[in-house]
Structure formats: structure tokens, C-alpha cells
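Budget justification aside, the reviewers requested a transparent look at the raw inputs and outputs of the sequence design task funded under Objective 1. We therefore reproduce one unedited record. The lines immediately below are the C-alpha cells for a 415-residue chain.
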């Protein structure tokens, strides 16, 4: 429509009132659906309509179509000159982010009014409807405003529904992985290792990939109009592990781990020896030197208390160890003099630098089976004790000693 008079200023006010309501409508049951955006184009025979008639005709049509459906929002053309070609009209619509066009041509004046209309759906690339409105008699302002445009109302209500703008999302993961966080339902990755779905665009997603025996992974991202690809590594949870550790920051040891339930329930065995150790506080010219001819063969089991995906995890367990005396690592004899062994409780934590490497910390109080507790202390601590004969961290019981100071630090490799 060609702008010819100040009547258009009033028309713009009517546009604001009529078009604003659909924009405030809430989401439908599908939370991603949006209304359709329709560009209204009106052409008139300039020599058959006065400025006032042109304004009334335009305002009447605009008011009717703007209120016809909650699923359609009407846009006014930003250009008073309507492109002559269909390609030009589509380009004009896209410039205002409209996805449909309602093109109306009015001729004949009020005396012999003829209105031709065409609705074009740009999303489906098709014509949604065409028609002619011809009253067959001379019309006036009252007739124009009260009821000529019902075919346009029916067209918008029946042919234009709310839509969901979609973008292609590709998920790459191991076959069989379950992907949750997609709209509507969980989906499983097929044998190809790829899952491609259409998802609502201009939305944020948080996907979770799960596969039995593997670490769960999460990915958060935003989907715009461009295709998106997300890859999950899904690292397998370990079956075995081995750690190198130091007892009380002094004596070396090794543990071999077996995960009966991957990353959840473990059984382990290993040895700690006092043949050599670090002696940082003694008056010695060497930090590493020979200690006592004593080693501990341990066996215990435990369970993790936090999910496998956590960087820091706590675990607890129980077990025991046997004490061996020897002159070398190949000559072991069960210690029948001081104590044969002990029961232990394990309270530990680990921090993961990766899925395979972990720093570990353990506190292992021990109930040592010592028939003669004082004899055990005398043999174990010939020099390193207080003048009254007591050793900090050890509690003498009836035929047993409670060791409360046993701490382990180390690093573990899982595989």
C-alpha cells in the first residue's frame, strides 16, 4: 500500500493494539512452539479509492486478521512500495523475519469492491489459500468494518498453526548408549554410533549419556539455526587397578585392586614393607635407609560412597593384614613373637586428575592381635618413644594393641 496521507499514522496505532495481543500468548502444550509471523501486503487502485477509504479498508482488514488466530502474528510492511514479483515479496518478508505472506489486492472502489487475496506459507514453500471477496453491491464504511472478511479469518485459523523451528542435532557415542535430555523422550544410539534427530532451535540443552559399565557424561550447549554435533567419549569404568603408596609417609607399599562392581565395589590385596623407608627426622646422613625386617600382607574390601563421575570420592572398607619377619623379601616368616596380624578399617578418599590416574589418601586404624601388648611395643619401638615408654597413637588393650596413627598416601592407575 502506498502511503498517501496522515491517516496512516492512525493506522499504525491500530496495528500496535491489534498485533500486540498475540505476542503475549503463553506457550502451548509443546513448550517450544511459537506463533506464525505473517507479513500483510495491501495493494489498491489508487484512482478508485480516496485516502480515507484506503485507510478504512486497510484498518478493517488488519484488525480482522490480527484477531483471527492466536497462532498468527501480523507484521506490517516496512516498505510502502510492494515488490511486483513473488521473489521480491518473499525477500521483503524475510527481512522482517516473517514466515508467511498475506497479499491482498483491492480494486473497483467502494461502488464495485473486489478483493483478491493469496496466503503464502514460506516454511512449507506453498500457497496456503487464494480467494476473491466481492460483495456485489456498493459498500460503505459500516459494511467494510463489520463483516466482509470472514474468509480471511477462516484461512488463518485453518491453515496456520503454531510451529516449532527445528535444527538437526547429531549425537556420537558408543552403540547402545542411552541419551536423555532430548525433548519428549530418551533415545538409544544405534550400531552406527550416531544418533540424528530434529530438535527445537534457539534452545539450550543438557544431555546425559549413559552406558552400563561406563562413566556417565553430561554436555550442555545451545542450539541456534545451524546443525550441531555432540560427541560423548564414554570412558569404560575400570576392572583392575594398582597403586603405589607410603605408610605413614615413610614405608613403601603396593596394592592390587579388583572392582567386583566397576567403580563401586572393590577387593584388593598388597604388601607394605619396612625393609627400607624414609627417615627424615633421625640424625642420619641418608634420607632413605634400611629399616626393620618386617612386612605386612594385606587383604580388604570396600565400597565407594559417592558417584563415579565425581572428581573427589570417598570410600570405606574393612579387612586385615598378616605380619611377616624376614631377612630378605624372598624369606618370609609369620611373626609369632610380637603379633601375627590385625583387623583394619579403611576410610579413604581419592581425587581424579583423569579417568585413569587418582591420588589416594587413607586412614587405617588397626586392631592388632598382640598376646603381650607391652612386648609388642618394646619390639616395635626400641628408640622412637617417650621416656615413660608410651608411643603416641597406640592404645594398649587386653591382648591387643589399637593403632590409631596409620595413614597412607599414594597414587593409583586404573585399567
Amino acid at each position: 500500500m502506498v502511503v498517501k496521507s496522515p491517516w496512516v499514522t492512525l493506522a499504525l496505532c491500530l496495528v500496535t493494539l491489534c498485533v500486540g495481543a498475540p505476542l503475549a500468548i503463553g506457550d502451548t502444550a509443546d513448550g517450544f512452539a511459537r506463533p506464525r509471523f505473517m507479513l500483510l501486503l495491501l495493494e489498491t487502485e489508487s484512482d478508485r479509492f480516496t485516502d480515507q477509504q484506503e485507510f478504512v479498508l486497510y484498518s478493517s482488514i488488519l484488525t480482522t486478521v490480527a484477531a483471527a488466530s492466536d497462532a498468527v502474528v501480523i507484521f506490517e510492511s516496512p516498505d510502502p512500495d510492494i515488490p511486483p514479483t513473488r521473489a521480491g515479496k518473499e525477500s521483503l518478508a524475510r527481512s522482517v523475519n516473517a514466515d508467511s505472506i498475506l497479499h491482498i489486492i483491492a480494486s473497483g472502489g467502494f461502488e464495485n469492491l473486489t478483493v483478491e487475496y493469496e496466503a503464502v506459507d514460506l516454511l512449507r514453500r506453498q500457497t496456503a489459500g487464494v480467494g476473491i471477496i466481492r460483495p456485489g453491491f456498493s459498500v460503505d464504511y459500516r459494511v467494510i468494518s463489520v463483516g466482509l472478511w470472514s474468509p480471511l479469518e477462516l484461512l488463518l485459523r485453518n491453515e496456520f498453526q503454531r510451529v516449532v523451528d527445528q535444527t538437526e542435532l547429531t549425537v556420537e557415542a558408543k552403540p547402545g548408549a542411552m541419551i536423555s535430555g532430548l525433548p519428549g523422550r530418551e533415545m538409544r544410539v544405534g550400531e552406527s554410533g550416531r544418533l540424528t534427530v530434529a530438535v527445537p532451535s534457539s534452545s539450550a540443552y543438557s544431555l546425559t549419556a549413559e552406558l552400563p559399565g561406563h562413566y556417565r557424561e553430561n554436555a550442555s550447549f545451545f542450539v541456534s539455526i545451524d546443525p550441531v554435533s555432540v560427541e560423548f567419549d564414554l570412558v569404560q569404568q575400570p576392572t583392575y587397578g594398582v597403586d603405589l603408596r607410603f605408610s605413614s609417609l615413610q614405608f613403601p607399599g603396593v596394592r592390587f585392586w579388583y572392582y567386583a562392581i566397576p567403580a563401586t565395589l572393590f577387593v584388593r590385596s598388597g604388601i607394605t614393607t619396612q625393609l627400607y623407608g624414609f627417615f627424615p627426622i633421625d640424625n642420619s646422613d641418608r634420607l632413605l635407609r634400611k629399616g626393620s625386617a618386617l612386612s605386612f600382607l594385606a587383604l580388604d574390601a570396600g565400597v565407594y560412597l559417592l558417584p563415579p563421575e565425581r572428581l573427589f570420592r570417598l570410600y570405606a572398607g574393612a579387612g586385615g593384614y598378616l605380619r611377616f619377619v624376614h631377612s630378605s623379601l624372598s624369606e618370609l616368616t609369620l611373626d609369632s613373637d610380637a603379633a601375627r596380624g590385625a583387623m583394619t578399617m579403611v576410610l579413604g578418599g581419592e581425587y581424579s586428575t583423569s579417568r585413569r590416574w587418582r591420588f589416594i589418601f587413607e586412614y587405617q586404624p588397626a586392631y592388632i592381635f598382640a598376646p603381650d601388648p607391652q612386648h609388642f611395643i618394646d619390639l616395635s619401638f626400641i628408640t622412637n618413644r617417650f621416656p615413660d615408654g608410651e608411643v603416641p597413637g597406640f592404645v594398649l588393650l587386653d591382648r591387643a594393641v589399637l593403632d590409631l596413627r596409620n595413614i597412607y598416601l599414594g597414587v593409583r592407575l586404573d585399567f
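The first strand starts at residue 36 and ends at 44. The mean pLDDT is 87. Computational costs for records of this kind are itemized in the attached budget.
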